User: Fold Polysaccharide deacetylase from Parabacteroides acidifaciens.
Amino acid sequence: MNKTVLILLLVCLSVCGAQAQISWPDGKKAAIVLTYDDGLKSQRDIVMPQLEAKGFRGTFFLYGQVVKDSDIPEWREAARRGHELGNHSLFHPCLAGTVETSSSSLCRSLECYSVKDMLTEIGMMNSFLYAIDGKKEHAYAYPCGQSVAGGEDYSRPLLDSGLVKYCRGAAGRHVVEDAKTLNFALIPTLPALTGCKADDLIKYVQDALDKHGLGIIVFHGVGGDYLTVDAAEHQKLVDFLAAHSDEIWVGTFSDVLDYVAEQAKK
Assistant:
């Protein structure tokens, strides 16, 4: 190969790689999104005060079956304070055997759903959330991280339906590095499992920093409820993020993904 052509090829590859990297606002090197599933009491009692003390806001994915009338004023007030409320479906359907089945005679497992059924349920939950926070658009998180209804993947039909713009999907340690290749129907996340330690979560945050990427963490209970992470471990993570606020953007799911979507267009 001609030496000049080879040099030009290498330069092109270098430039293309640089363009793929997300350029974060205000000189930040990475973004971290803290998400919380199932609308649990410990999230309102423990998580929100920890976040707000550092000026942070989280994203809380609610499902209709667990939001009691008495909880609605608290969730409405949380949204007013800047926390994001997300759609986690009405009945939290998962594949059979993933979680304990309900005593109800109705089938609530994903095997019993069609894609149309799932989209209808998500649309109904959007209306429920609108009644709480007054917002017409809500992000979505797949219950149990599963996007197959009746044997068919509903992630792309959901995004194409316009019901939601962003879907939090597959679990793993994957950090989002390239806005242009991100599948907004299956955005990866790191689950903080029972007994998870802050050191492990901080390693994930550091990975996002090293890669100038986006990291998304999902919690359930914090200091209580189920799938519980100790409140002190959660506080250590929040403290680390606050100590590095000059280089890490801690934002809500939709705010950060709105920015990433704009980057993907460039």
In short: Strands lie at 30-37, 59-62, 84-87, 140-141, 148-149, 152-153, 167-171, 187-191, 214-219, 248-250. The domain at 35-265 is CATH 3.20.20.370 (TIM Barrel). Residues 4-19, 100-104 have pLDDT under 50 and may be disordered.
